[in-house]
Amino acid sequence: MKPYLSVIIPAYNEEKRIGQTLTAVYSYLSQQTYSWELLIVLDGPTDNTLRIVATFAQGKEHIRWIDRKQNMGKGYTVRQGMLAARGDIRLFTDADNSTDMRHFDQMKPIFDKGASVVICSRDGKDAVGAIQARPQPFYKRFLGNAGNLLIQILVVPGIWDTRCGFKAFSATAANKIFSVAKMNGWSYDDEALALARRFGYDIKIIPADWQDAAGTHVTKLDYLKNVWEAVHIRWNLLTGVYARQAKQQAAGKPHPTPK
After folding, report:
1. How far apart are CA 85 and CA 3, in angstroms?
2. Helix (H, G, I), strand (E, B) or coil at 124
3. 0.70 cut: is pTM over it?
4. With CB atoms 3.0 to 4.6 Å apart as the test, which of 86, 122, 207, 221 could cross-link to 127 if both were Cys?
5. Res 92: pLDDT
């Protein structure tokens, strides 16, 4: 049976965090009345992440994983999961569980009213009540805020937090957006929202009650890479790269699904 909700968790070297996150997500989903699946997409981990995922899934229904041996980046991994998911609603969330699954309780009524894209924000300018219960270090906040101003100018104006790792899409929106997306790195969020806007989807925002978890894979260099990626996304938008791929899909020549 086709599930109502697919929860996609991208995972690289997450042996210290993935077990706790899977327990929390599975506990939440098991209490729901709607059908669901949990899809973990492994981004070529070199630690014990695969073993922990396989052990956790043993004897449990509605859990599957993609064991990709090559590390391709978080954007590639999220894209692969969103396109491989089967749910009517497809939500990706981080392996560190910084945004609790209970946030979907706020999203579901919005989807029930016909929304196609609903995201969480940690910034009160996006959604009243947003909380960072355990804030990021100062340098992350500074670099993130500076980067966001550039992202708003180039890619997604009007959204102050494009990077909260808890975003949900209808199946139609997910297929349309992620089948033409290109960013393999950390700018995949910005690209997905820019494409949502370009394809005419209204982005709904709910407040996040968010905690910064230890063990992030984001480095200071990644913030600099994001500047270049934002320029790249803007160039793709201006030159019609995404539009051409969307037309190819409509003509029956879909962009290849990441393997």
Report:
1. 9
2. coil
3. yes
4. 207
5. 98
Beta bridge partners, 11, equal 42
The residue-averaged pLDDT of 48-52 equals 98
- How far apart (Å, rounded) are the C-alpha atoms in residues 131 and 74? 25
- Beta bridge partner(s), residue 237: none
**Is 139 part of any domain?**
yes
Q: Check which CATH number belongs to the domain holding 198 and give it.
A: 3.90.550.10
Tally of domains in the chain? 1
**Would 256 be classed as within a structural domain?**
no
The residue assigned the tokens 């950390």 is 186
Strands 166-170 and 36-43: unpaired
| Residue 70: DSSP 8-state | S
The whole-angstrom distance between residue 171's C-alpha and the CA centroid of its chain comes to: 14
Average pLDDT score over residue span 77-105 = 97
Tell me the residue range of the domain where 169 lies: 5-250
H helices present in the chain, as ranges: 18-30, 49-57, 74-84, 104-112, 138-154, 171-178, 188-198, 220-238, 241-250
